[in-house]
Amino acid sequence: MSGRFHEVTIIVNGEDVRERIDARTTLVDFLREELALTGSHVGCEHGVCGACSVRVDGVVVRGCLMLAVQCDGSRVDTIEGVADSGEIADLQQAFIARNALQCGYCTPGMVLTAQELLARGGVPSREQIRAHLSGNYCRCTGYQSIVDAVQATARARADGKQ
Ligand code: FES
Ligand code: FES
Known about the structure:
Blueprint: E1 5-12, E2 15-22, H1 27-34, E3 53-56, E4 59-62, E5 75-77, H2 79-84, H3 89-97, H4 107-118, H5 126-132, H6 144-158
Parallel strand pairs: 1-5
Antiparallel strand pairs: 1-2, 3-4, 3-5
Helix pairs in contact: 3-6, 4-6
């Protein structure tokens, strides 16, 4: 690639998106400002808080540390797409049931990251859940209820109750 603007094709939530993108645009800014997918939030903008988490080719990444042009040819799934698929319906319900969100700013990133752990199967310990979520900051909940919600979802899935 050379020059400032690039034609890229990204599969966003299952749909091909072809856009001319400024090379400096971060993935999270592209999703929010060009595609109006505002579920991914912008917090610290330097890779610390996890509010901008999205999946790229199945792996949760920081949307503020990745450039949109780097995703040319990749599949990007945002909280909107993952929620619409029903994949995290039980986890979302568990967050609501345990008051694992207050302002909700961290929640999309928290849920996506938790789902990454849950998708491995089994029932992780509280320590494992905390370690996996350690890159996602919450200013409101004190984390206890978030860990409760994730562990309850893991138990329910393991028992086949999802
Ligand atoms: S906004 Fe990306 S990690 Fe904080
Ligand atoms: S619910 Fe407010 S930052 Fe987590």
